[in-house]
Amino acid sequence: MSNRLGAIEFRHLRYFTAVAEARSFRAAAQQLHVSQPPLTRQVQQLEELLGVVLLERQPRGVELTAAGAVFLDEARNLLALAEQALDRTQMAAQGQLGRLDVGVFGSAVFDAIPRVIQAFRTAYPKVEVVLHNLDRAGQIKALRERRLTVGFNRFFVEEPDLVWDVVLAEALNVALPAGHRLTDHARLTIADLSGEAMVVYPRSPRPGFIDQVLGLFHRRHLTAQVVQEVDDVVTAVALVSSGFGLTIVSDSALNLRLPGVVYRPLERNEALIDLCMIRRIDDDSPLLRAFIEVAREVLPPPPEVHVAAR
């Protein structure tokens, strides 16, 4: 059976299906735009390979035998699977099919990253997008192990086998307890925060956002009065809600609406914080290219000049 199966071609299946559905060699030949004798020979060859009669020739056309009726269903299934295979292969080549593993971390999960993911899912609904909550070191390790396609994070440094691009530069804001005297200001400066109780984050990895915040004070020869270091922005804003102190957040974190918290922007010239997209330098897959294109369409281009630390 294996030798016979290897000799059967898709042409045999298409020709037989056309004849069986048209109930006529002549009509099938017209539909297929071939002459009738080659069509007849192909169907006869198929019957010989299978060792069964598929069609009974009648004066007014052809009729399926019992074996022919079964084979017609199977031939249709095989042709449909072949068509599906071609379609899926072409979609994969165009970045419209497959799996995309995306690393996420930090405050960008509250705004920028969800907007990119949603836009990509809308544009490429047949691509499976899987999110992985990994810090910067975890993303770099996962990329090198090919467990991750692309990562979003901040403060990347040069890596020989990886490439990263700044896709968004966000302004910084101050989260204050409601009723704090600084809520009377429309905008704040780092000098306004000198001497105020500060909650900073994250404790790791370093360098990170915590170092940028402290650097804002140091560059101005001011002192940050740190009362607590925590692991993430959610915990920091929760402590602000309880009146524990102030904290500095990016624009994305403004979506954290906790009771008793008021946000005020820092002056635009104080600092911007970069959101980076990192990937393997040798990954030129259509799927990744499609994702990068969507990300750049969704996120506003970063300004030419910014002072975010890396």
Mean pLDDT across every amino acid position: 87
CATH homology superfamily of the largest domain? Periplasmic binding protein-like II
- Helix/strand/pairing category: alpha/beta
Count of β-strands: 11
Shape: rod-shaped
* Uncertain runs: 305-310
Separation, N- and C-terminal Cα atoms? 65 Å
Major β-sheet profile: 7 strands, mixed
Describe what you observe in this structure.
This protein has 310 residues and is an alpha/beta fold. Helix 2 crosses helix 4. It is built from 11 helices and 11 strands. The protein is rod-shaped and about 100 Å long. Strand 7, helix 9 and strand 8 form a beta-alpha-beta unit. 31% of the residues are buried. The N and C termini lie far apart (65 Å). The strands form 3 sheets. Strands 3, 4, 5, 6, 9, 10 and 11 form a 7-stranded mixed β-sheet that branches. It has a two-stranded antiparallel sheet with strand order 1-2. A two-stranded parallel ribbon has the order 7-8. Helix content is 41%, strand content 22%. The chain has 3 domains: 92 residues, Arc Repressor Mutant, subunit A; 93 residues, Periplasmic binding protein-like II (D-Maltodextrin-Binding Protein, domain 2); 105 residues, D-Maltodextrin-Binding Protein, domain 2, CATH 3.40.190.10.
Main features:
310 residues, 22% strand, alpha/beta, D-Maltodextrin-Binding Protein, domain 2, rod-shaped, single chain, Arc Repressor Mutant, subunit A, 11 helices
Write a short abstract of this structure.
This protein has 310 residues and is α/β, with parallel strands linked by helices. It folds into 3 domains: 2-93, Orthogonal Bundle (Arc Repressor Mutant, subunit A); 98-166 and 275-298, 3-Layer(aba) Sandwich (D-Maltodextrin-Binding Protein, domain 2), CATH 3.40.190; 168-272, Periplasmic binding protein-like II (D-Maltodextrin-Binding Protein, domain 2, 3-Layer(aba) Sandwich), CATH 3.40.190.10. Helix content is 41%, strand content 22%.
